[in-house]
Amino acid sequence: MAIQLTINGKPQSVDVPPNMPLLWVLRDTLGMTGTKFGCGMALCGACTVHIDGEATRSCITPISSVAGKKVTTIEGLSPNRSHPVQRAWIEVDVPQCGYCQSGQIMSAAALLAKNAKPSNSEIDEAMKGNICRCGTYQRIREAVHRAAAMHAASAKPARLDGALPTDDALDKQLVEAGGAA
Ligand code: FES
Ligand code: FES
Q: Are residues 143 and 72 in the same domain?
């Protein structure tokens, strides 16, 4: 039986076994290869996507559990690499081999959608499930701070009454930028 879900804002219907992992559906059924296979056991984070805004390991997520939900992959984070995390990643030149990086970016985007100004320890905690064999962790941390600063710079003038935007407003702007749709 076909399973209906929304991927990167578009309704999709996939006729696959209900226990097929979401990662398989993305890569093999839909041809969206930006999300990577690393371990297949929820140990490396390479396969991270957002499901209803939550960073999730797609390698262990049965497609049946995603029915009716909203999935965002690296391909849908922004139409033109304009998401603050993508811009920061480019500016800091984070990737080395690049294999882990779509998962890293998706975890970072989910973190910033919830916490607009994370500390080093909050970044480390949120990103600890994303393994990088090339050891780009220092640059990842720097890029998350840079993305947070970019977002803050664009968000602060938003209110005319002098009040700072609420966390909800910041989240809304990040979601609208593609962070957690
Ligand atoms: S491939 Fe999913 S966590 Fe490693
Ligand atoms: S950049 Fe090579 S594994 Fe992370």
A: no
For 24-44, what is the mean pLDDT? 98
- Provide the β-strand partners of residue 3: 14
Q: Which range of residues forms the domain containing residue 69?
A: 3-76
pTM attached to this predicted model: 0.86
Using CA atoms, how far apart are residues 72 and 41, in angstroms rounded to an integer?
20
pLDDT digits (tens, 9 = 90+) for 119-159: 999 999 999 999 999 999 999 999 999 999 998 888 654 44
Q: Is residue 36 part of a domain?
A: yes
Residues 49 and 107 in one domain: no
Find out whether 112 and 147 touch, Cβ atoms under 8 Å.
yes
Atom of ligand 2 nearest to the CA of 96: 1
Mutate to test the pocket of ligand 2, among 132, 137, 139 (most ligand atoms within 8 A of CB): 132
Residue 171 in this model has a pLDDT that exceeds 70: no
